[in-house]
């Protein structure tokens, strides 16, 4: 591809005359110098801790001769240096151009909010696929389409990766993409040149605020709201206190869903149900023109909101109602209120709840079901804001009968430092707690002490199959550990009975 095609609509300056360099042949783009070779463009990005400009000379040594820079750097005379105001913005447009603007040919649905993004995107994909619309997913759990999966480093991939994925999906028959749009992804311009057909707002609460993230809650909100300036149609949870702010900033047309307020789609007559492998909820959907019954095999008010978002999308896309409702009945997402049917007398749940609001939601939901004790095993990420630790501790100490404080992606921080911060919330409360920094042993302990009727939540890890320890992702499967611990418990009981 010619340089002129890739730089279409990108603002830049160059010392070399454009007519002399515009027909330069480009093989590919790279924002990591180690991936550069002859024929590549190197885009120097200023990151949180690393400045890509420092690696321009390395990219040159590897054969790269075209550079996108915010700041001028010293390179040999045969280097083509294009100076831009923001290299992330440039990368976004260049990536879209390089891959042929694939999002314009796809129906792209973006989901943003503090909670529910993963569940909503996966539910949308499951329902649309069952209705005959080939739909892919991009998000926290990875990329999925046509039975193919790919792990992603970020919830919302870097713009180059995003448009590459769009192109691959499109070339493989995908018609629609349901994707998570994180505030960080918006802030870092990863979705600036994505052609969104639908944007969904689930809810908003303080999160990702601190060093290396958002400086203030207002900044966090503004980033979320920007999605509704990129889409043609918006679907918003009007019950959320910040919905009005999102709507105020939106430039697309808006429809709403709710449980408490008047909206285009409202859930009423809510009832909870329980089975060995799931906790579910049924409700009646009401619009201005009709009403119908719906069920989802995930518990709680938050699950109803997730379902309402999916139903709104399907109705907007004219999916047949009976197909939509049937698909929604069995929709599940790994690590999101995932019930493990491994003990007959207690309910074991794995969930990604990793902040105060999400943990409070699941714990309060579980308490609506018949139970003996509510037990929560959790920790908090090392090297991140201490505010989250306090929020988690305060919620767990208030809502639980017993907690097991353990590690959760400690990285370079001593897990006991994190646990110590969390433990402060349990002072002068009625909630007992156990400290076990080794998460594997903590899970085994939880299974061992389970009593009849207990609700036990392993919170924080969800779908993750690793522990982040000293910069490395060490393989770690909560599900596997829990299953083995349950087998050991059952075998031990059987042995004691025979004795």
Write the layout of secondary structure elements.
Layout (H helix, E strand, L loop, with lengths): L2 H4 L6 E2 L3 H4 L6 E3 L9 E4 L12 H6 L4 E4 L10 E4 L3 H12 L8 E6 L4 H14 L4 E5 L2 E4 L2 E3 L8 H13 L4 E5 L2 H5 L8 E6 L15 H10 L4 E7 L5 H7 L3 E6 L6 E11 L2 E9 L4 E6 L4 H16 L4 H9 L8 E3 L6 E5 L4 H11 L7 E5 L7 H14 L2 E4 L9 H9 L8 E4 L3 H11 L5 E5 L6 E4 L2 E4 L2 H21 L1
Parallel strand pairs: 2-3, 3-4, 4-5, 6-10, 6-11, 7-10, 11-12, 12-13, 13-14, 18-22, 19-20, 19-22, 20-21
Antiparallel strand pairs: 1-5, 7-8, 8-9, 14-15, 15-16, 17-18, 23-24
Helix pairs in contact: 4-6, 5-10, 5-11, 8-9, 10-11, 12-13, 13-14, 15-16
List keywords for this structure.
499 residues; Udp-n-acetylmuramoylalanyl-d-glutamate--2,6- Diaminopimelate Ligase, Chain: A, domain 1; Protein-Tyrosine Phosphatase, Chain A; 3 domains; eleven-stranded mixed β-sheet; 16 helices
Give the CATH class of the largest domain.
Alpha Beta
Count of DSSP helices? Answer: 16
Mean pLDDT: 92
Distance between the termini: 76 Å
How are the strands of the biggest sheet laid out side by side?
9-8-7-10-6-11-12-13-14-15-16
- CATH architecture call of the largest domain: 3-Layer(aba) Sandwich
Question: What is the strand tally?
Answer: 24
User: Mind summarizing the main beta sheet?
Assistant: 11 strands, mixed
β content, as a range? 15-25%
Q: What level of helicity do the residues show?
A: 25-40%
> What is the 3D shape?
globular
Rg (C-alpha, Å):
25 Å
Segments where pLDDT lies below 50 for 5+ residues? none
């Amino acid at each position: 591809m010619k340089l002129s095609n890739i730089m279409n609509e990108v603002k830049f300056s160059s010392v070399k005359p454009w007519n002399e360099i515009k027909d330069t042949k480009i093989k590919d783009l790279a924002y990591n110098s180690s991936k550069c070779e002859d024929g590549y463009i190197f885009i120097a990005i200023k990151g949180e801790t690393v400045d890509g400009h420092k690696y321009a000379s390395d990219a040159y040594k590897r054969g790269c001769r075209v550079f996108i820079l915010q700041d001028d750097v010293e390179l040999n005379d045969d280097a083509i240096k294009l100076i831009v105001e923001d290299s992330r913005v440039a990368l976004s447009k260049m990536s879209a151009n390089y891959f042929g603007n694939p999002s314009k040919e796809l129906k792209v649905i973006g989901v943003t909010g503090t909670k529910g993004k993963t569940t909503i995107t996966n539910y949308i994909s499951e329902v649309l696929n069952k209705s005959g619309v080939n739909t892919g997913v991009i998000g926290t759990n990875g990329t999925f389409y046509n039975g193919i999966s790919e792990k992603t480093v970020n919830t919302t991939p870097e713009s180059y990766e995003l448009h590459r994925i769009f192109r691959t999906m499109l070339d493989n028959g995908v018609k629609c993409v349901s994707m998570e749009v994180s505030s960080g992804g918006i802030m870092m311009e990863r979705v600036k040149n994505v052609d969104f057909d639908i944007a969904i707002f689930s809810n908003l609460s303080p999160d990702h605020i601190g060093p290396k993230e958002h400086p203030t809650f207002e900044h966090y909100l503004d980033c979320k709201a920007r999605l509704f300036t990129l889409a043609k149609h918006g679907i918003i949870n009007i019950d959320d206190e910040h919905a009005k702010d999102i709507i105020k900033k939106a430039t697309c047309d808006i429809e709403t869903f709710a449980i408490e307020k008047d909206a285009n789609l409202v859930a009423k007559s809510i009832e909870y149900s329980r089975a060995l492998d799931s906790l579910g909820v049924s409700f009646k959907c009401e619009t201005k023109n009709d009403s119908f019954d719906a069920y989802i095999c995930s518990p709680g008010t938050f699950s109803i909101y997730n379902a309402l978002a999916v139903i709104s999308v399907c109705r907007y896309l004219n999916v047949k109602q009976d197909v939509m409702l049937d698909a929604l009945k069995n929709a599940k997402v790994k690590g999101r209120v995932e019930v493990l049917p491994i003990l007959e007398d207690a309910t074991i749940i794995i969930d990604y709840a990793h902040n105060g609001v999400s943990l409070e939601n699941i714990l309060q939901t579980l308490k609506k079901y018949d139970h003996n004790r509510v037990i929560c095993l959790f920790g908090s990420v090392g090297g991140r804001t201490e505010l989250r630790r306090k929020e988690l501790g305060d919620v767990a100490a208030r809502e639980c009968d017993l907690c097991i404080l353990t590690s959760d992606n400690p990285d370079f921080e001593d897990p006991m430092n994190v646990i110590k911060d969390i433990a402060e919330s349990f002072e002068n409360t009625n909630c007992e707690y156990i400290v076990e920094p080794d998460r594997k042993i903590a899970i085994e302990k939880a299974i061992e002490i389970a009593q009849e009727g207990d609700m036990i939540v392993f919170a924080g890890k969800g779908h993750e199959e690793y522990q982040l320890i000293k910069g490395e992702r060490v393989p770690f499967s909560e599900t596997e550990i829990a299953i083995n611990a349950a087998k050991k418990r059952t075998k031990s009981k059987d042995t004691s009975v025979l004795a």
